[in-house]
Amino acid sequence: MTLTSSSLPTTTAPRPELDVYLPQQDTQLLIDTLRSRGVAGARVLDLCTGSGAIAIAAARAGATEVTAVDASAEAVAYARQAAAEAGVRIEVAHGDLRRHRGRYDVVTCNPPYVPTPPESEAALHPAGPSHAWDAGLDGRAVLDPLCAHVPDLLVPGGTLVLVHSEFADEEASLRALRAGGLTAEVVAERVIPFGPVLSARAGWMEEIGMLERNRRIERLVAIVAVAPGESGPAGGSA
Ligand SMILES: C[S@@+](CC[C@H](N)C(=O)[O-])C[C@H]1O[C@@H](n2cnc3c(N)ncnc32)[C@H](O)[C@@H]1O
User: Fold this and answer.
1) pLDDT 10s digits, 9-65
2) Strand 43-47 versus strand 104-109 pairing type
3) What's the confidence (pLDDT) of residue 2?
4) Rounded to an integer, what distance in angstroms lies between the CA atom of residue 97 and that of residue 75?
5) Which residues contact 129 (CB under 8 A, 6 or more apart)?
6) Pocket test for ligand 1, best of 34, 70, 150, 197 (most atoms within 8 A of CB)
């Protein structure tokens, strides 16, 4: 593993040989949303941390404590080294987000959300860290448990900042978060061209009616959800 600078880039060419998701446009959208809301003085939990880019951005923006979690041992090792090189203190834990416990002012998450065909046809599965994007037929294999668990991770008035693609159904995320007692809304969007994984799956998505013929752009959404109670740092109404 080689990290070349103390500042992780936020849009990086995919490196299929590396089993870690390097920062992309979704990462950047989450960081921009986090910065626009402010995180100074907050205790932050970054779920699905990957390279640690979001956790590092939170620490640099003045979070008092940052914890990061990932199910991939390689991502955990990468994020620990990235934090050390960036000169910020981050507790990086190896584990499934569903089993993480604790209460935080701010929870961030850029989960796997790419709709994934059931059979493993090689052409639909480009090389790279598939654990970072494969998310079941509807793209919600990680989003659904995340939305169900996040109310148990927030202090009163605490905030979730979540990013995913339109193809994983933002209305389903909003409904699930509201069902958990949070206020929730889409606060930012970004339209980007398909990357390698969606490009590989575009034909399949057209066949199942998930994608209009020949459309090759996706809309990323940033969702902010706020727990009931008095606002903590970076809290406020969604
Ligand atoms: C899209 S990447 C995001 C990486 C980074 N946060 C970013 O925005 O660049 C998703 C990450 O989620 C991790 N992951 C997948 N399922 C998980 C789970 N159930 N619990 C914790 N981490 C998980 C993957 O290993 C991967 O590192």
Assistant:
1) 455 555 656 799 999 999 999 999 999 999 999 999 999 999 999 999 999 999 999
2) parallel
3) 34
4) 14
5) 18, 19, 20, 21, 72, 75
6) 70
Q: Which tokens belong to 176?
A: 């699930």
Residue nearest to ligand 1 atom 18, measured at CA: 96
pLDDT at 15: 63
Cα separation, 5 vs 87, in Å, equals 11
**What's the 231 CA to ligand 1 centre distance in angstroms?**
27
For residue 109, the CA-to-ligand 1 centroid distance in Å is 8
198 — pLDDT class (breaks 50, 70, 90): very high
CA–CA–CA angle 224, 81, 7 (5° rounding): 60
**Cα–Cα separations (whole angstroms), residue 217 to 12, 129, 132, 165, 203:** 19, 22, 20, 11, 13
Specify the pTM.
0.93
Atom 24 of ligand 1, nearest CA residue: 132
Q: How far is the CA of 132 from the centre of ligand 1 (A)?
A: 5
